Structures are given as structure tokens and as C-alpha cells.
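Course exercise 7: structure representation. Students receive a sequence record and must write out the corresponding structure in C-alpha cell form. The form below is the worked example handed out in class, using DUF2946 family protein (198 residues). Read each field label carefully; the graders check that inputs and outputs are placed in the correct fields and that the protein name is recorded exactly as given.

STUDENT ID: A-19
EXERCISE PROTEIN: DUF2946 family protein
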Amino acid sequence: MDQSVKDAIARWPDVPAVYGWLSLDGRGRWRLHPQGQATAGGAGESITNTQILDFINRNYEHDDAGRWYFQNGPQRVFLRLDAAPYVLRLSDDSHGLLTHTEKAVTSVSAWWLDDAGQLYAMTPLGPGIVLDRDLSALLENLTTRNGASLLDSLGPLPADETLQVTWPDIYPAAPLQTITRKDIAQRLGFDPNPGPPQ
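STUDENT ANSWER:
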């Protein structure tokens, strides 16, 4: 978090949080909702200014309740997550994953494959969905415990079973499980659409 943001919080600790103005889509794009209606759905407007995007990326956090927000000076801007708190892509050298905020993923403790074919990972930064355009390339790098390609080994995986997978020399073995899309937020521990307290 930027020092100027920390200083603003210290000066004005009681600024009310806002809801409904910002969302993160499934491709890692920040979207502005000028009418404050993100919690009701809708695509919103793309944010394209690189300075604003960098500022949001540096000041993106979450609270203990799994609500993700952008700390805009002294004010928390809670946001709607269309897929997960992070959108993960292959690094430029294809030796690991990066978040949509350009942070390196140093490890993965668990993988989930949902009923729509999307792959999720639990990272030290928080849970993320693998960007769809990088999914095939990532799956080609993952292997089972015996060294076989995950793509060659992946068949129907029963809901109550796990498969240990690794990305050799990048991420050690971690369990891969299936999950239904409706259970993702609860299982991965985030609130996809926080609203104001009632």
C-alpha cells in the first residue's frame, strides 16, 4: 500500500466505505460503475488510464471477512469480483504465474477445476482464476505425482477425490480438486459482491 494512502488513513480514520463503484472482471480488468450500481450487475466502463490502474493495483487489499477493496486514500472502495480476487496469467518467460496486479505467484497450495472448465489456484496473495487464454499452456506444464502430464491423465475426477499435481521446478505438489462454480467463493474464502452493512 502506498505510504501516502497510509498517511491519509491515519489523518482521516473514519471515512465511510463505499460500495458499488468498482468491479474486477474475469479477465483482470478494472471496471468503473459511475452510477454506483456494481452490486446490481452490469459491465461498467473500462478504466484505461495507466496511472489510475497502477494506483488501484498497488492499493488492492482485503479485510478479514474476505471482502476485497481498493484503498483510495482514506476511503475503502469495496468491489464486485466477477470470477476471483486475482486473475492469473503466465509470466512473460512462462516460468510461473503473475496476478493481474503484476505480482509474482511464489507458490500454489491448492488447485480447483470447476464444472465450466475454469482453473483456480490458492496463492499466498489470495485465490485466483487462471486467465482462459493461458489455461491450455498452464495445463501442459502441470504433471501428476508420477511425472505424467496432467492433460494426459485428466479424466473425470470424483468430487471427493484429489489429484496431486506439480509444475516441475516452479510449484511443488498441491492437490487438485473439482468444484462447482456456485461453491467457489465460499470454498476459496472471498465475498464476490459485498454490500453495505444492513
